[in-house]
Amino acid sequence: MALKDEILEAWDEGEAEVSLLDDFLDALNDGTVRAAEKHDGVWAANEWVKKGILLNFSHRHNRTLEYGGVEYHDKFELKDTSGFLERGTRNTPDGTTIRDGAYVGDSAIMMSPSFVNIGAYVGDGTLIDSCDTVGSCAQVGDDVKLGANTLVGGVLEPVEDAPVIIEDGVSLGAGCRVTSGFVVGEGCVVGENTLLNPSIPVYDLVEDEVVYGHVPAERRVMQRYVRSSVSDRIGTEAYKPAAVATSLEDETLEKAQKEDALRD
Asked: What b-and-e string marks burial along 80-107, b requiring 16 or more CB atoms within 10 Å of the CB?
């Protein structure tokens, strides 16, 4: 029986063997199954994968564990990173934490402190800088740069909801927050301290339209504030966050250039 069928059967029955749960985590660890995938240009959650993660939570017990001489308490061990050297992937000491069931690609770089949660996918050549978090089931593409103190939120439940997606070649400036299933399109350059979620309007000046829940590919994105309709109710001016997306210019691309020397 295929892994997907076994997970769905275990979900329906409310019972799962430890061997099945371990096989499922192994598949997440090596990237052969993912919490979300793109079909015909649209990202969608793999519900069965998220159900498999939830089964692991419900069928494992919190216990005392040890890693690198540090005692901690969790239902999951940390990811085995012994294969990183052969794959050219780096994780610096004292604070790069990768939970079991997360995938980190070849030639990726994780700086301390940073955290990648279960079900997340981090692509080849991606840089995760200091104080960054990649949440449960978040999907981060190849050759992405996450600036320091950046949050890529997780969406584990409800199972039908797609997680946060950061497509290939994106550069997120320091302090960005991307949450609630938002999709940042391929090749975008996002300015520092930009907040992106499905309730924030994105004013796409390239196509002269307002979109929600995603930024189209190849855009420069900046945080701005627009007048809120609540102003009329409270009798004073109030503003809400928005994002402005413009076309990429050579100067912007040069500033966001990724250095091959870091990934050699």
From this structure: eeeebeeeebbbeeeebbbbbbbbbbbb
Is residue 173 included in any domain, yes or no?
Answer: yes
Which structure tokens are listed for 98?
């990768």
The single-letter code of the amino acid at 243 is: A
What dihedral angle (degrees, nearest 10) is formed by the CA atoms of 68, 69, 73, 77?
A: 30
Written as one letter, the residue type at 26 is D
Sign of CA dihedral 192, 196, 202, 205: positive
Q: What's the pLDDT tens digit per position in 23-50?
A: 999 999 999 999 999 999 999 999 999 9
CB 22 within 8 A of CB 70: no
DSSP category for residue 78: B
Query: Can you give the pTM of this predicted structure?
Result: 0.93
Rounded to 5°, the CA angle 130-214-249 comes to 75
Domain of residue 89 covers 3-256
Torsion angle of C-alpha atoms 13, 14, 15, 21, degrees rounded to 10: 110
C-alpha distances (whole Å) from 67 to each of 116, 135, 252 are 16, 21, 42
Beta-sheet pairing, 139-140 with 195-196: unpaired
Kindly give the pairing relationship between strand 127-128 and strand 145-146. parallel
- 263 belongs to a structural domain: no
Structural domains in the chain (count)? 1
How far apart are alpha carbons 98 and 79 in whole angstroms?
A: 6
Say if residue 119 is exposed, middle or buried (CB neighbours under 10 Å; 0-12, 13-18, 19+): buried
Query: What tens digit of pLDDT does each residue of 150-203 get?
Result: 999 999 988 989 899 999 999 999 999 999 999 999 999 999 999 999 999 999
